[in-house]
Amino acid sequence: MERQGVVSAIITQNVDTLHQKAGSRRVIDLHGRNDIVECLSCKSSVPMSTFQEEMLAPLNPTWATSAAGPGENLNLARGRATLR
Fold this sequence. Notes:
The protein is built from 3 helices and 6 strands, in the order E-H-E-E-E-H-H-E-E. The chain is α+β, with helices and mostly antiparallel strands. The chain has a two-stranded parallel ribbon with strand order 1-2. A two-stranded antiparallel sheet has the order 3-4. A two-stranded antiparallel sheet has the order 5-6. The radius of gyration is 18 Å and the shape is elongated.
């Protein structure tokens, strides 16, 4: 729709860059993005993976081996979601 001129930009609450992946170029992310971390003081930004590996891992060495990814802490057996 953006390429066709129907809309000039997209305003979204999604944090997963879905619109960018679909080809949208002018996207306003109201709640930020989950792939970028921005310093509130100096406004510098880094990819989330860099932040986790270089900044969080040294502060909490067991985090990388114990943290569950999205959905990994859910048990969806028998159509019911329970936490593991």
